[in-house]
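EI: anyone free to look at a 273-residue chain?
SC: sure, send it
EI:
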Amino acid sequence: MEANLASIDQIKRTAIDLGMNFGPRLVVAVLILAAGYFAGRWVGRVFGRGLARIELEPPVRLLLVRVARVLVLLLFGILALQNLGVQLLPLIAGLGVLGAGVALATQGVLSNVVAGLTVIFTKPFRVGEYISLLGEEGEVLQITLFSTTLGHPDRSRVVIPNRKVVGEILHNHGLVRQIEVTVGVAYDTDLNRAVAEIDEILRANPRVLHDPRPLVAVRLLGESSIDIAVKPWVRVPDYEVAQGEVNRAIVERFRAGGIVIPFPQREVRMLAG
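SC: here you go
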């Protein structure tokens, strides 16, 4: 019984000694972490206001603000550990080995992140622009650190890893696209009249842009028709609809005006032997 009481007394004295030695340090460490939390929030707000002046995507801006907060909190955490008397060199060495292992295991993810930062800061394209890349094309819907999302006119989406974007040949149409329509007219057609009719159609269509100016010109002297190229500019969302409207308007206007759109023809002559 006396041995048990002696053990309890020993435990109490040890606890008191630990409390006297490490209690103040622990309180100071907690205060340091609390200060780091509020300092991180303040740095995040200031950093966020600075990033607002740069044209970045909202998810990327939010991620960078969070990274800044974490770095500040990590710095204060190191100060708290030093206050507790923790040896940081072995800890840093261990974290270095762990970080190397994580980097090897996630090298694909890290390459996407690096490529994503390259895309974000070099800005080869932006949200809303129409691009063609790696055999895929579409309107840029979203740019993140890991991938770029394209939208197709059929409402499907293509997600391209950013490491596939960097270093590849990119065709950026921007915010507008050029419709390519070809219409054939008979060889006896008054070309000035046909071109004037097409110009009037393009001016009447509200989706067709007047700047850049639409291109209407003779493209080819075919076997049975003179082909006229019609290339107006439209905004990216209007591309499919405007192309259908221009095609239909040309057919209806030519029919009403007596301008012939000829069928392919072949003349076959049979010679008597």
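EI: The longest helix spans residues 2-51.
SC: 👍
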